[in-house]
Amino acid sequence: MVRISSFATTACTIIVAAVLLSRLRVSFATDCTTVTSLVSACSNFVTYGSPDPIPGSPCCVAMTSLNNLADSGDNIRNVCRCLMELISTYSPNATAIATLPGFCGVSLGFTIDPNTDCE
């Protein structure tokens, strides 16, 4: 049963990420909801510092989707701005948010740090 639940959770995360990604391509510049939703797949790690995300986990699938969103200059800047807003809002968890791409083996094209200039 656990394998089915884990598989179902991962499959659901991938489907949600794909739907959000398709909607995001239409109107990304006006909305950080998708970025927040993707990062929320990592809420246990961001909140508690464990378990570490591993490639293939729902969290890392979400980080890969986030990486796919940051596919051009404008999109990179928009993803960056949204993430800077998140780490500003959740400053006690900023370090955990900043480490997510590294755990998942993705590079967003910028450093997640409160001092990052997204321009």
UniProtKB/TrEMBL annotation:
Q: Read off the Pfam families from this record.
A: Tryp_alpha_amyl
Which Gene3D superfamilies does this chain map to? Answer: Plant lipid-transfer and hydrophobic proteins
CDD domains membership = nsLTP1 (cd01960)
What does the UniProt keyword field contain?
Lipid-binding, Signal, Transport
Leader peptide range in chain numbering: 1-29
Question: Is Acyltransferase tagged as a keyword?
Answer: no
* GO function terms (MF aspect): lipid binding
InterPro entries in the cross-refs:
Bifun_inhib/LTP/seed_sf (IPR036312), Bifunc_inhib/LTP/seed_store (IPR016140), Plant_nsLTP (IPR000528)
Q: Name one GO biological process term.
A: lipid transport
- What are the residue boundaries of the Bifunctional inhibitor/plant lipid transfer protein/seed storage helical domain, all occurrences included? 32-118
The similarity comment for this entry is: Belongs to the plant LTP family.
Q: What is this protein called?
A: Non-specific lipid-transfer protein 14
